[in-house]
Design goal:
Strand content: under 5%
Shape: rod-shaped
Radius of gyration: 48 Å
Largest sheet: none
Helix content: over 70%
Low-confidence stretches: none
Length: 119
């Protein structure tokens, strides 16, 4: 309000204007408090959301690590790997049989030499 308007008001009207301004100020202060409370609540929600996102990311990282570990473990038992393992096992058994045959022949030769020398 300008000074000229205030000067034209009677004391009763001036008291009414002051009372209306006080009521409006109280309303604005109440609205500000309510707004601040909502801002605090939103900040709490945001903080909680960040914590939950971090927990979710940690859980996802653990699941990925478990999945990679499981895939690594199952890689040995995949159908593509089985022929390779079977081939290696077959080769090892063939070598064992060949070695067993060679040792048997060596023992036989040594026995003949021992019995032939003693006779």
């Amino acid at each position: 309000m300008s000074d000229s308007i205030i000067e034209d008001l009677s004391p009763g009207e001036l008291a009414t204007v002051v009372e209306l301004q006080r009521v409006e100020l109280n309303r604005l202060l109440s609205e500000q408090k309510r707004l601040n409370d909502r801002i605090d609540l939103l900040l709490q929600f945001q903080e909680r959301e960040q914590v939950l996102r971090q927990q979710m990311q940690t859980s996802l990282d653990q699941l990925v690590a478990q999945r990679v570990g499981a895939e690594s473990a199952s890689a040995l038992s995949t159908p593509g790997e089985m022929p390779l393992l079977t081939d290696r096992l077959d080769r090892a058994e063939r070598r064992f049989r060949a070695l067993r045959t060679a040792v048997g022949q060596l023992v036989a030769v040594l026995e003949r030499q021992v019995t032939g020398q003693g006779a």
